[in-house]
């Protein structure tokens, strides 16, 4: 059975912004990230994206705009000969008390249920403490990338001692593909 890799979106696949990614023009892939996803897919991994999108709850953009951004991601991956297995998102704000906003593990449970892959064997690649905490809650292996909020997350301390740190999604994907993770 192929192993599951769950990616955060903003700061891992595309540029992040403290003002949120609110439009297609603001959705800019990070260098090497799309090729990294293509390498994971070609190596036989199941690849899903789990992303908090509280900008929807905050009224900064709507689900149609989010769908446009995700369609662009899928188009760029199709140009590389692959597609994601799933994209799931939490549209709620930080105070909504949902189970899908990371660090809550609801998005990860949904991915596992729909892909039939065990979370205990999954790898989660993210740039924030929320990504790492959600991975810990489900027993997945968490990898931190230094893009997006990653450097601030690392410098903030308090991460689990076994957190592996990579420069970006490309280097994290290469380690996963090589089987060292």
Poorly predicted sequence stretches spanning 5 or more consecutive residues: none
Radius of gyration computed on alpha carbons: 15 Å
- Tally the helices: what do you get? 6
For the record, give the distance between the C-alpha atoms at the N and C termini, rounded to a whole number.
16 Å
Strand portion, in percent? 15-25%
Strands of the widest sheet, in order across it, are 3-2-1-4-5-6
Query: What order do the SSEs take from the amino end to the carboxyl end, as H and E?
Result: EHEHEHEHEHEH
Gross morphology is globular
Which structural class best describes the helix and strand composition? alpha/beta
The residue-averaged pLDDT reads 97
What does this structure look like?
The protein has 181 residues and is of the alpha/beta class. Helix content is 34%, strand content 15%. The chain contains six helices and six strands. It has helices at 33-42, 63-78, 106-115, 129-138, 150-155, 169-178; strands at residues 4-7, 46-52, 86-90, 123-126, 141-145, 164-166. Strands 3-2-1-4-5-6 form a six-stranded parallel β-sheet, sandwiched between helices. Helix 5 links the parallel strand 5 (141-145) and strand 6. The longest helix has 16 residues, at 63-78. The protein is globular, with a radius of gyration of 15 Å.
């Amino acid at each position: 059975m192929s192993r599951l890799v769950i990616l955060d979106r903003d700061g891992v696949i595309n540029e992040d912004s403290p003002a949120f990614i609110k439009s297609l023009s603001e959705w800019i892939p990070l260098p090497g990230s799309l090729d990294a996803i293509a390498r994971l897919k070609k190596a036989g991994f199941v690849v899903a994206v789990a992303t908090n999108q509280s900008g929807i709850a905050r009224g900064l953009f709507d689900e149609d705009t989010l769908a446009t951004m995700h369609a662009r991601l899928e188009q760029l991956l199709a140009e590389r000969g692959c597609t994601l297995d799933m994209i799931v998102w939490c549209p709620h704000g930080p105070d909504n008390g949902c189970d899908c906003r990371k660090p809550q593990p609801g998005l990860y449970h949904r991915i596992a249920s729909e892909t039939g892959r065990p979370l205990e064997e999954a790898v989660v690649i993210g740039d924030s403490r929320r990504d790492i905490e959600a991975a810990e809650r489900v027993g997945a292996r968490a990898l931190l990338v230094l893009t997006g909020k990653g450097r601030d997350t690392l410098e903030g301390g308090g991460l689990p001692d076994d957190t592996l740190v990579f420069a970006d999604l490309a280097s994290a994907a290469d380690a996963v593909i090589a089987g060292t993770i």
